[in-house]
Amino acid sequence: MKTFFFGIYFFFITLTTGLSQTIYTPNWESLDKRPIPTWFQNAKFGIFIHWGLYSVPAWSPKGTYAEWYQYWLDNKTLFGNGDFKGDEIYNYHQKIYGKDFTYMDFAPLFKAQDYNATEWADLFVKSGARYAVLTTKHHDGFALWDSKEASFHHRRPWNSMEIGAHRNLVEEFVKAIRKTPLKVGCYFSLREWNNPFYTTSTMPIYVEQHLYPQLKDLITKYKPDLIWADGPDNYDEEIWKTKEFFAWLYSSSEVKDSVVINDRWAKFKNGKHGDFYTSEYSSSNKKYDKPWEECRGMGFSFGYNKLEDIEDYAVPQALIHTLIKIVSQGGNLLLNIGPTAEGKIPPIMQERLLQIGEWLKVNGEGIYNTRPWKKNCQWSEGKRDWKSGEKYYVSGNAILKQTVNPEPGYATQEVFFTCKANNLYAILTNYPDKITLKDVKSTSHTIINLLGYPDKLRWEQKGQNLIVYLPQITFLKMPCKYAWTLKITNIQ
């Protein structure tokens, strides 16, 4: 039987001279030259969706990832913010489900009976997001589409068509998203915790006979605009056959000209590859040589966690400030939601998405299609080295200590900058009487507006600084909440 990778090389060998598209060969010198589709860097805001068998128990100690339930259960360990003994999930599972109930027994309970992909898509549009990424298969290997590889290699019904929901959840998602302006993203885990072939000695079998046939099936059926790989563990690009896959994806797949992929395809030896870099639950300033994306949940978990309370969720002001900060540094925010096992998005998550969407209706011009300016922010007076005291994952609300609620003696990031053409956008985290924008030089053609406010603003140039006087209006007439955008045209 011809393997998937033989097909790649066969394609290169038999390529006719009449084809005009660029052909990428399986080496980084060739692959890293592939142009990154511009839609991703223009999008700025996406929705991550963690949904699977782990959504049935939906339980993990605060500060940990609920979608890792199987791993915590089987290995009697736990990782995250907090001090844990390690057996918390195991003890909970024994108490609630009993000693004979395995993680695999959650599969028939994942029924998704209230799942309505059209309602999800409508909510994402209202949020102002430009793309949505669904976990088509997480580390437990359970597939949300009719993947024959999932069931064959796990030796049991292990996809949502054969057990539980008895529905093709990915297909429904893709069809609904395709009816909107949003791009379709598919998260796909490389690792599978309990796959019998996911061992050091059998990785070649796992990669060539399971992983890539399954991934190619996903790509061929649903033609995603974005593929979000995860979980390469300590296996390098030679084990994962990463270069060969990239060459096929970029050269001959049906999405070769439009697809965007992240950087988690292997433990790379010589830097990062892929179209964009990823970070997770972080708060540090970033500067990369290509597009990047920060992913985080509204709480501390990607999968829905019933233990999280209101104080564990980021407030809308914090989420909006996070988006602004990331965009000012040239990144995208991929904000996660965790639906229930029934397929409902928790109301607090719906509310947060709608609040972000309301803000973007007014201020989106300063977010979408922008690029970083010569500096990403302006600080107030004070120390700039405040750091969150959280152990591993930085909470969503931590940014407020850097923007509006500093500790004594610490500075705040009072303005974030983006730019588009010859226009500068200064996004304010507070609303003062006036703001002095340092090292911003106007011209005789400069006009300053507050997005969402009808009149031009008064301003003056004083040396190297531009002083802008904000209109003093009542709360009810404010164009938005949480942050305010100055559009400054024709700067030097």
TrEMBL record:
- List the GO biological process terms: fucose metabolic process; glycoside catabolic process
Species source reads Phocaeicola plebeius
| Molecular-function GO terms, alphabetical | alpha-L-fucosidase activity
Q: What class of enzyme is it?
A: hydrolase
Q: Which family does it belong to?
A: Belongs to the glycosyl hydrolase 29 family.
* SUPFAM superfamilies referenced in this protein's UniProt entry, alphabetically: (Trans)glycosidases
Q: Any idea where the Alpha-L-fucosidase C-terminal domain is? A: 411-489
Determine if Signal is one of this entry's keywords.
yes
Which superkingdom does the taxonomy of this entry point to? Answer: Bacteria
Q: What does this protein do?
A: Alpha-L-fucosidase is responsible for hydrolyzing the alpha-1,6-linked fucose joined to the reducing-end N-acetylglucosamine of the carbohydrate moieties of glycoproteins.
UniProt keyword Signal present:
yes
**Record-listed E.C. numbers:** 3.2.1.51
Q: What cellular component terms from Gene Ontology apply here?
A: lysosome
The protein's name is alpha-L-fucosidase
Site keyed May be important for catalysis: positions: C295
Q: Where is the signal peptide?
A: none
Q: Which UniProt keywords apply?
A: Glycosidase, Hydrolase, Signal
Location of the Glycoside hydrolase family 29 N-terminal domain: 19-365
